[in-house]
Amino acid sequence: MKKINIIAIALTMVAAFTMSAVASEWDFYGSARVSTFVTDTDNKLIRDTTAFDENLQGNSRIGAKVKVNDELTARFEYGTGVNVRQLYGEWNFGTGKFLVGQTYTPLNWFYSNQVYGSDEDLLSYGGVYSGRSPMLQLTFGNFKIAAVQPKSDALNVVGGTSENTIPRIEASYKLGFNNAFIELAGGYNTYSLYDPATTVENDIDSYIGAIGAGINFDKYYLNASIFAGQNIGPYGMSYAPNGDPIIAGTAVVDNDAYGYVFVAGAKINDMFSIEAGYGYTEAELDTAGSIEDGATSYYVQSIVTLAPGVFFVPEVGVIDNETDNTGAEESEILYYGVKWQINF
Question: Domains of the chain, with CATH numbers?
């Protein structure tokens, strides 16, 4: 009898899922990405290395977009691992939209197509990227505001404990024209950090402001952005230099940072496109005698389309981590190779 009940419950669940799937429109998709690159690394005081690597990129994915009705939509997306990249539902209530789940927050701009480093896109080298996080988001036209999962970091405090009291707040606004756009974005995060050695509790405040723009001239395009912020390390920004503040005695020494990217490209024909990009970023502790921690990256590439959804991207570029915040020289990388991708 127990087995019969279990089978009945299982059949009921399958039937319910099937009815739900029939009622909703499910648009499944996937993307398989393999990188094949040679990396020539100048390690300064350590032995230089040259290595070839072939990997299934971590941002390969499979997912689905779901339309329940005109007011309710949803999406899920899994990456390699298996990790949840996106999982959310969004309700259109007429004057706006309400999103619940995990996806890209408002402080995310993809202006570059740099493919090295599992599609780095210059995000750690002057780009604007705070990743995918759990959040509640309201959208009104081109304006978005979100209460995002907050961040914290023990920094240089041994045994330090942190406490968040409010969510991370992010907002963005995009203004579009016939062949151009301009957008603004910003974010704020705060938490308290307790130091058991001094019994002092400090507030760590992070903020970021960014402006970006782009323009298309028929087959040609230009994109550019710039950001500035404070303590973007504990905020959770993707960032090559050390963007962390430090605790000196009983005081917080903030870390100021900025970065910018510039990208230009052209579509030659349906088979060939080209693009070049440059990004620079640096951080510096707000104290006398501090040293800038900078990093830059630049590249040139061609996108070769073999069939709809099937393409490869030859690319050559440089990643120069310059110096750290002690003034010591860091690594410089010359890379060249190809990313292979099939979307399905």
Answer: 26-343 (2.40.160.10)
